[in-house]
Amino acid sequence: MIQLDDLDRAILRLLKEDARLTISEIAERLGRPESTVHFRIKKLQERNVIDKYTIVLGERLQPKSLAIVYIQAETPIIEDFLEKYILHIMKTLSMLPNVLAVARSGKAGIIALIGEENREKLNRFVDETIRALPTLKKVEVFPIDSFTKGKGLVGFLVGV
To answer: Is the pLDDT of residue 154 over 90?
Structure first.
């Protein structure tokens, strides 16, 4: 784990809030010289603490209805095929625009974050696309009603 001091964390907090801030604006807010802030940001980039600068899409482009879907594949007769099948499902899901994130969970499980305009379309997507995948043992849908933390994640993940 990389050690960060208070100044590094303060710079990262400001950049996470608004990556458009200039070095002079960051220096002014933190009461530090521009050269110090510039040096610290350069070091954070070199150490891969800062990977890239990006945008978070606004609510107008974000799905209004979200759910976490847990998918469990049926173990095939030849168990060696399970790994390939899981990877195939994950790749297939990753290509769908409604699927915002895909992750592996255990030996035969997949978790996907999906989004749609409304709950009805979301349910239809699950029924027609995910439940239609062959040899699934279980598909559980957990609708998300609200976020306490991480709301900006959706704006970051949604495709255009």
So the answer is: no
